[in-house]
Design goal:
homodimer, alpha+beta, 60s Ribosomal Protein L30, Chain: A, Phosphoribosyl-aminoimidazole Synthetase, Chain A, domain 2, 2 domains, four-stranded mixed β-sheet, 10 helices, 13 strands, globular
Chain lengths: 320, 320
């Protein structure tokens, strides 16, 4: 029988695995944590919840759940060009078995350590499995990359490849498993583009992370900036696995699949080479996929410049 | 049929109800929020989750759920003597009906406005109902009230009355409802002792909010401070409704009932009159209920000084 933990044992089990960090005055174990913000920095705060069976397949390994719960939040900070510093973890589980928790922490803390992020507090509760992480980053005043800062004529770029996680999810839905390791990793272990987000300070105008699908997320930039976006369908980056699909299926995944956690950003045409250099320095693939235009909305252009029509609109929670 | 909202409509519906606050650079609607910490202040961060049916009865009105989700978090900041400034809200619901959301926000925002707290971001997801709030406060360096700062000989104090919320919950468990309005309010609309927590800066040594029951929470102070605590059973403050109960039932609720959200704190004997003055200034009842002693653990003393034995240990999540 699995070892069951009381709430306080559980918190202690988490605390034992954490290291010290100079800017953490008081970590896990009090009513709240105390941290020291950097002087002259703004504080960037994002929160994302993952619900079992909604945001990840119920069979997902605990370590992957831990990784992903943190990754999606670091991705939000990356899209703001913020440097991640602290996170809190609110973990709800039907039961608190030690083995699951240890595995969860393996994934969560591996990513936290890689980014120098301290887990400073949280809550553990009993209930249907869900994880809410709140992530805190810092950014110098006016250097954050906002959705509403795109400018007419900007190039639109995206990191990595699009649609892999959605393809993995499709495999899982059809067969109950994901045999392709690359695709499984893209779904379960997304890579938040933190270093590249920081490198885009002073280069990019607007940025967002692609979590709901490119169309939906590029749409947020367009709407917030009161502009439009034209995407070149043939320019959308793809993995070899996606390239093997028929083009309609492939483009559906690239445009409307969720869970990519790549950065989509706009930058002046004159800074294209700086974008490329930053990407090389960060070992991140980056692709120019379109441009910011005057007419509202998102248009997807085919190879001859014709406007393609798409019915899919990206993944929406609470879709009616 | 109830009006159903998409995620973006839902976020927009929340955003429309929020005012501006000078230290909020960018609120709801981007990947993350941007706020400006006060210079020379430490940042205090607490997170608490409420799960439907675990932390509140399933029949609880949406407005009460909203109030309580914020109140329990402000209570954590109060126990640190931190001034609340911003909160994020991660809301998970099986469906997103507009009427429920509006009622939830009525309760949540009424309390937020009362404390000058800005809702700056969050997440809305589909799943079993649960709410995670992360609250941010500020405190000058070294003025936070920590659990580990009690000193030998300190008086132990508590605000308000104890056991009312637990009695309300008992009524609900036995009859499916709570007819007594005062008790219902104590369960559903707890009052975070924010102003009094701030007033305790420089007076109290250690503080905690009473959420899991006095024995458990005073036990946290004792353990963290490597000391013990003696409680006077007859000194524990009670409402008229609790006073009407047989003493054993009453003391069980006062000592082990959860959800009080009162502050329990230790202060030097010489500062008793300052504690009283601060309480009067804040219009908060305060009662001296024991003292900090050398021998580890919590002892409850009867009227003749005899040690009472208690089996209840307060409410614990994941209790095995």
């Amino acid at each position: 029988m699995a070892e069951q933990l009381g709430e306080f044992d559980l918190i202690e089990r988490i605390r034992r695995r954490l290291g010290a960090q100079a800017d953490v005055v008081l970590g896990i174990g009090d009513d709240a944590a105390i941290v020291t913000p950097l002087p002259d920095r703004q504080l960037v705060v994002g929160t994302d919840t993952l619900v079992k069976g909604v945001h990840y397949p119920v069979e997902t390994a605990a370590a992957d759940v831990g990784w992903k719960a943190l990754a999606v939040n670091l991705s939000d900070l990356a899209a703001m060009a913020a440097r991640p510093r602290w996170v809190t973890l609110a973990l709800t589980r039907p039961e608190a078995d030690a083995a699951w928790l240890d595995d969860f922490l393996d994934g969560f803390l591996a990513l936290a350590v890689a980014h120098g992020v301290a887990l400073v507090g949280g809550d553990t509760t009993r209930g249907p499995e869900g994880i809410t992480v709140t992530a805190f980053g810092s950014v110098p005043a006016d250097q954050a990359l906002r959705r509403d800062a795109a400018r007419l004529g900007d190039d639109l770029w995206v990191t990595g490849t699009l649609g892999d996680a959605a393809l993995a999810l499709q495999h899982w839905r059809e067969t109950g498993r994901i045999e392709n390791d690359m695709l499984a990793a893209r779904l379960n272990r997304p890579t938040p583009r933190v270093a590249f987000g920081l490198a885009l300070r002073g280069i990019a105008h607007a940025a967002i992370d692609v979590s709901d699908g490119l169309l939906a997320d590029a749409g947020h930039i367009a709407r917030a900036s009161s502009l439009g976006i034209e995407l070149q369908a043939d320019a959308l980056p793809m993995s070899d696995d996606l390239a093997a699909l028929p083009s309609l299926a492939r483009q559906g995944l690239q445009l409307a699949g969720g869970d990519d956690y790549e950065l989509c950003f706009s930058a002046p045409v004159a800074k294209a080479s700086q974008v490329q250099s930053a990407a090389e320095a960060c070992d991140v693939r980056v692709t120019r996929i379109g441009r910011v235009v005057d007419s509202a909305g998102i248009r997807v252009l085919g190879p001859g410049g014709q406007v393609l029509s798409l019915s899919e609109q990206g993944y929406r929670h609470f879709a009616s």
